[in-house]
Each structure stands twice: as structure tokens, then as C-alpha cells.
Design brief:
single chain, mainly alpha, 69 residues, 434 Repressor (Amino-terminal Domain)
Length: 69
């Protein structure tokens, strides 16, 4: 079973590799920076549309974030 913490770790890794800040990502996705921080901690998961846009922005495969690779 995949845990939200694992997804958060993958999101954090993708953010680091992108070179973007959490603030820049939040602004682009029209969400708060604290929401990004909650994704990284695994406290919450992004809504499906936000998740798709986040993956596109970070240029990362959705399957990777979802621990399917």
C-alpha cells in the first residue's frame, strides 16, 4: 500500500530537481505555499487537477509521484 508520506517524498524530490521554489509553484498553481508544504509532509494529497498540473509544471511523470515506478 502506498502511503501519503511516500508521495510527499517524491513531490519534494521533484521540487528539488526542478529548481523551483515552493512559493513559485504555489503561485503558478494558484494555491498557498503552506499547501505545498502539506503535500510534502504527506498531510494532504493534491486534488486530481492540481496533481496533474503540479506534475506538468515539475516535468515529472505522474506514475513516479504515485510510486508506480
Amino acid at each position: 500500500m502506498i502511503k501519503s508520506e511516500q508521495i510527499g517524498e517524491r513531490i519534494a524530490e521533484a521540487i528539488r530537481q526542478s529548481g523551483l521554489t515552493q512559493t513559485a509553484i504555489a503561485k503558478e498553481l494558484n494555491i498557498s505555499q503552506s499547501t505545498i508544504a502539506h503535500y510534502i509532509k504527506g498531510d494532504i494529497l493534491p486534488a486530481l487537477d492540481t496533481f496533474a498540473n503540479l506534475c506538468k509544471l515539475l516535468d515529472v511523470d505522474t506514475n513516479y509521484i504515485l510510486c508506480q515506478q
